[in-house]
Design goal:
Pfam families: HhH-GPD (PF00730). By secondary structure, the chain is mainly α. The protein has helices spanning 6-21, 26-44, 56-66, 71-84, 88-93, 96-102, 109-127, 140-148, 155-164, 176-184, 194-203, 211-227, 246-251.
């Protein structure tokens, strides 16, 4: 996006600030969500290739490892787990200390090691085996409900399992970057947590969108949060969404 001075950006934002004050109907947010998607897709190269081709149970373990952990670190931990425990049944039979040692590069390995074992035991007890392939025969809502009935699995993890795994189901994960960008853009409220934001953000997108469409939406908002809409000092001057963003309007407001 060409650079612009603060007065130009502030002027461009005025009509949207006035519109936001009228508390428009949900259709306004749907139109805004679609416009955000339309603008970000060419920036980040939709359709975006999937970064994983794991079976859904392996994706579940990978997602549990990734919580509050950099992708590179959780990826190394997952590979180490698979090398040490080629079958998930081997991991269930292992001392929890061995699992913790194997994943020591992630955040809170002392919590994640017993949690992974507990989740795998729950899957085995409820399904009768260590597989989640059967989820592909269910609707997205039913599959997510099945997963989220297991302690330790929340909306982000259930959506990740369905979307990122080889099931390629139409679920929308929301990570911390995605969540932050959605809040700044006014798609969700400033006090809404990540978990409750999942159904809200999904409802703003077309019901018939494919798995690839929803994966792209998650990825472009996540990438925008990583590369432009930083936690501290967002780069509003090079953001293609600045005229849609209430937070940018505040940032460029005259003192």
């Amino acid at each position: 996006m060409p650079s612009a001075n603060r007065h130009d950006l502030f002027a461009a934002a005025r009509p949207l600030r006035a519109a936001a004050a009228t508390d428009g109907p949900p259709a306004d947010l749907t139109a805004k969500a679609l416009e955000i998607h339309r603008r970000l897709c060419p920036v980040y190269g939709c359709p975006i290739p999937y970064f994983h081709s794991l079976d859904p149970l392996s994706e579940l373990v990978s997602s549990l490892l990734s919580h509050r952990t950099r992708n590179a670190d959780s990826g190394r931990a997952f590979k180490a787990l698979r090398a040490r425990f080629p079958d998930w049944a081997d991991l269930l039979a292992a001392p929890v200390e061995a699992i913790e040692e194997t994943i020591r590069g992630v955040t809170w390995p002392e919590l994640k090691a017993p949690r992974i074992q507990a989740v795998l035991r729950a899957v085995e007890a409820r399904h009768g085996g260590l597989s989640l392939d059967f989820l592909g025969e269910m609707t997205v809502d039913a599959a997510r409900a099945w997963l989220e009935a297991i302690p330790g699995i929340g909306p982000k993890t259930s959506a990740a399992v369905l979307s990122f795994s080889v099931l390629r189901m139409a679920a929308l994960p929301v990570d911390s970057h995605h969540h932050r960008v959605a809040q700044r853009l006014g798609l969700i409220g400033p006090k809404m947590d990540v978990g409750p934001s999942h159904p809200i953000l999904r409802s703003q997108l077309p019901a018939d969108w494919s798995a690839q469409d929803l994966y792209d939406n998650h990825e472009i908002l996540m990438l925008h949060g990583q590369q432009v809409c930083h936690h501290r000092k967002p780069a509003c001057c090079r953001c293609v969404l600045v005229d849609l963003c209430p937070s940018a309007q505040v940032a460029y407001r005259e003192p």
